Amino acid sequence: MTDFFSDSALNNLTQHLLPGLWPFIFALIVSAAAVPFVALLSRRYGVVAQPGGRHAHAKPTPLLGGLAMWLGFAIAVFVFAPHNLHTLGLLVVSGLATGLLIIDDRWSMRPLVKLGVQVGLALLAVLVFDFQIGYIGLPGGHIIEFALPIAVVVSVFWLVGMQNTVNFLDGADGLAAGVVAIVAMVLLLAAGQQRQLSVVQLSGALAGCCAGFLVFNFPPARVFMGDSGAHFLGVALGMISILGVAKVAVGFALAAPVIALAVPIADTGWAILRRRRIGASVSTPDRLHLHHRLQSASALLGALGLTLFGHGRILAVVLVVTAVLTSTVVADLLQHAGWKVPAPWLRRLLNAPGSR
User: Fold this and answer.
1) Which tens digits make up the pLDDT trace of 127-178?
2) Rounded to whole angstroms, how far apart are CA atoms 309 and 315?
């Protein structure tokens, strides 16, 4: 126990995690500052979500929050991250995702067109900027390497899946940005353990732009991220996780977002099956997602929870539970990485041998 509290901890913490702090703060400030301006743009050009249908809000709400997030992320990455092919690719692909899906927010793309955009973005990332999952690690140190065609297919499937998962998740105020921020912090910690400085910086910037947007997106939301924001977050998260996998002997960076997004991924799968069963397009919006059912007054527990606590507090509980689960992963990382925190006073508190 006493070995955990060492004077070398501050140096370890600085080297592993603090490189992500400045991108986080910078992205948070820029994103939060940009939201009021993109809200004005949304209203001026009619990119707003009208009440009714899948939307539970009571008045027209701007849909360009994703543009504010991308601006915060892009500027932070440009300032703090190394300038190389992967950084350029991340900015270009995420920027295209934001820009092209603004068209969907304004005029609504046909489902096949939207899928084509998603696949095109994934192919651009994989073939042009070399974001590829070239292998997977198995227990016991075994590695399965993919031939190039298989690596391309797996990588494209991963990036398209991440875009759709975050997009399906974006159905309740603060939910998508909150979960992605937590997953980005998990990736930051995993990259810190492996001393992947660039991934730490990119993850910090992604978490920071989500945090800045959440200032305006917690219920009742004053701005929505729209499909443009959801696809930006999905493709950026997928590409950053691939960077982690490319240099780590195991697929932890893949496992972390899958574990953290297990519930929304399952909800996504069920939504696809549900819509196919009734003959509807898989991209047809509805209010039958898990987060909608929890809010529905027709569900006894949901109604009781909403009556006693309200939507905002239920969302806070969901995010806190996610954070608690994440803290378990963090504790395991700290334990196995050997990071140490200087806190001599804890020795006396814990009555450790040799502390007096």
Assistant:
1) 999 999 888 766 676 788 889 999 999 999 989 988 988 887 787 788 889 8
2) 10
Indicate whether 44 belongs to any domain.
yes
Cα–Cα dist 132/89, whole Å: 12
Q: Give the span between the Cα atoms of 250 and 259, in whole angstroms.
A: 15
Count of structural domains, the chain:
1
Range of the structural domain that residue 241 is part of: 22-266
Tokens of 69: 């997030």
Residue 69 lies in a domain: yes
Is the separation of the CB atoms in 182 and 166 below 8 Å? no
For the chain, how long is the longest CA-to-CA vector? 72
Residue 279 lies in a domain: no
What one-character DSSP code corresponds to residue 52? B
The dihedrals phi and psi of 195, each to the nearest 5 degrees, come to 60, 40
| 231 neighbors 103 (Cβ within 8 angstroms) | no
pLDDT in tens, 259-310: 555 666 666 666 777 666 777 665 556 655 555 555 544 444 443 443 334 4
Q: What is the pTM assigned to this prediction? A: 0.72
How many Å apart are CA 226 and CA 62, to the nearest integer?
A: 9
Residues 195 and 16: beta-carbon distance below 8 Å: yes
Does residue 355 lie within any of the structural domains?
A: no
**Is residue 118 within 8 Å of 164, Cβ to Cβ?**
yes
